[in-house]
Design brief:
Blueprint lengths: L1 H34 L10 E8 L5 H16 L5 E9 L4 E8 L2 H5 L3 H19 L7 E9 L3
Antiparallel strand pairs: 1-3, 1-4, 2-3
Length: about 150
């Protein structure tokens, strides 16, 4: 009788342990499962995310170069919907969010074309600062896909 009671208690504890383990594993994998379909979606709104190191003393030069070089070029690109620029004074970091109609239109822009505009941007900055180096380091480049 005592052995039956012990076996029932062990089974009860193991069942509880398996249920807890199942819940924990399901929770860990849930974000991964939700994120998988995003890579193949090329038809919905996508936001390009860029983070840059922008020292305080060069903030005005950076904003001017953005306005003179990137804004005119972006406005001529198919699928470009607009952009937002943020600057964090404490971190001396900029966040640029560029909205595109869809990923296909955004990614159809050739890397060579983007590199040419980046070179033009850097030349603008170097001339303004009278230096040979671009002081603005790209920290992060990614994309955000609007969820329905």
């Amino acid at each position: 009788m005592k052995i039956n009671l012990i076996i029932k208690e062990i089974i009860k504890n193991l069942s509880f342990l398996f249920i807890c383990l199942f819940i924990v594993l399901f929770q860990i994998n849930s974000p991964i499962l939700n994120a998988l379909p995003m890579d193949s979606d090329q038809s919905g709104l996508v936001t390009e995310e860029l983070r840059l190191k922008i020292p305080s003393e060069f903030k005005k030069i950076w904003l001017q170069a953005e306005k003179e070089v990137w804004e005119p070029w972006l406005s001529t690109q198919d699928g470009f919907l607009g952009r937002q620029i943020f600057w964090d004074k404490e971190k001396e970091e900029a966040l640029i969010l560029v909205n595109w109609e869809n990923k296909k239109l955004w990614k159809s822009i050739s890397v060579n074309e983007v590199n040419k505009i980046q070179e033009k941007f850097e030349e603008n900055v170097k001339t303004s600062l009278n230096t040979n180096v671009n002081p603005f380091e790209l920290i992060y480049e990614g994309e955000l896909v609007k969820q329905g």
